[in-house]
């Protein structure tokens, strides 16, 4: 790693800090005579969740998403502690000062100096027309974070699909968002190429991959179907409105400045275009993209919509209670919280909505 | 296809139209006693290009990109004919009326009623620190568009890399853009899941994939290096300023309307906020993103920049002569014109620039 220019010493140090923080949390819990099971990703499963009265994630926001992904019980609290404040924003975790004084957080919980916060989550129904009536043949592989190798063989036979009549509720709940789009490296071949300069000894690998725009049809709140082409569709919760959705929809002050300049010229306005106004407008606009995690509504937005003779998008974003998507994609997926993906190819229909029964129970400590 | 809800009849019809259009082009050329070799994608190679005096692509913009990708001779004209006007914008092709009267285009060429248009292209240099001195072991596979199967085995041995000292000029020239970002489905495992409702007969495949933000460092026009985290970096030509770059950077009138509303409130302005003004400002702004294909300058833009305590991006977009990128990515690639990709992982450094020697020769017919 060091040879490649990576900061190995920094990596090691962050691991040391994280380990120390985890020990602190465990010690704080055990000193209150609370029974603690400390598990890593691989060992974290629904049986462990069933055993627990509450779940504490020790890591960053990603770890919190993973922790939440196995909790389906509305009354099982999940608390996140940010053990990696250098690298993670921790917006799903407790304020960062509790990382080093977790006992203080526990005291507040004992004294009732907190309130329950229910973060609404999204559920997904999937159905498809014309699926062949045969079981899907799968290979079960252990989930391995360290498995860098691309030597992956997927022997799933394409035309053996289950005969599913009616929409199927998928066993996941999105805490941040569901994203629908084409995979980047969907089909590729590896070719060796000889450089013109004749470097026969070095043959870099070329992957001929297709980056395709995603083509689908969308219906919002049972409205009319609209054909769209874009770089993907994002449907988020209030929690997720701070995450990827925010990055898709926020504007840069560079862009706001340019827009206001053009408006000033066209509207012949007497507007003092200073940095202060530009920054204020930018901040206000970006803040309007955020809303409470507890609101049972979704925000959908289309990433890089392609508008031309063939495709239009009358509504590129907005709030909704229900979003239906019909895939016309070649090799797309639905990605939940950036961690779980489902095939979503031509013929598949997804129905996306919030059901308050799926809410995740977290805590908001009094300050 | 029809069972899945796809429009098979429509697909067949478009193929019929395309085939007819191709015949028309070939007939028009042969009636002028021009020798024509008609090749499909698989047969199109540098030998064929060498044989030809000029290349005519018959398809959409994608076919034009493919045609251009094998032409490195500045004086070998490449002409695009849009045989699929229903599906392709054809902004790289001749105006759509020549599709049905190609002989008219040929007459203009004979009479000199045209001018040469040189579309500037981007070249890429790649270098890396600490690459092991051993040849890369590759499997050569035929490029196959019909190959849907995911049964892909990549036996490339990770640690056998060439010892390349100094930057390596890659044998590609980007006509539209170079895009740098993390692959979506970089590492995944397939797990079978039993539904709670106990549908044992149907086990959908879950791909646990990681969608990561891209982490890299960027230096513009030999300026200071800046760490950035985003959904990727796009560097385009004037030709490409109408393509993906446009979709990344354009604003929706919904957003402009909201921005002007906020500006009006904050600036206490007496501005009539009507649809006409909003549309005008939106169009002007979006048009400012486009520039001539013949200008030897690049436009870089960062897609969904992540700005927080750790990462900032002082310049999210702009024109430049040279862009250098140092990868800190896990499993990223550089994608050229959406069709060719190169590994671009932690330790690799890319230098991106325009050299007028790499321009693509096309024609602009007089109207």
TrEMBL record, chains A, B:
- Give the InterPro entries listed for this entry: ATP-NAD_kinase_N, ATP-NAD_kinase_PpnK-typ_C, NAD/diacylglycerol_kinase_sf, NADK, NADK2_mit
Q: Which residues form a coiled coil?
A: none
Q: Which SUPFAM superfamilies match?
A: NAD kinase/diacylglycerol kinase-like
- Gene Ontology, cellular component aspect: mitochondrion
Pfam families associated with the record: NAD_kinase (PF01513)
Kind of enzyme, top EC level? transferase
Give an example GO molecular function.
NAD+ kinase activity
Question: Which UniProt key words apply to this protein?
Answer: Kinase, NAD, NADP, Transferase
Gene Ontology BP term (one)? NADP+ biosynthetic process
The EC code for this enzyme is 2.7.1.23
Q: Which family does it belong to?
A: Belongs to the NAD kinase family.
Identification of the protein by name = NAD(+) kinase
| Organism, as annotated | Merops nubicus
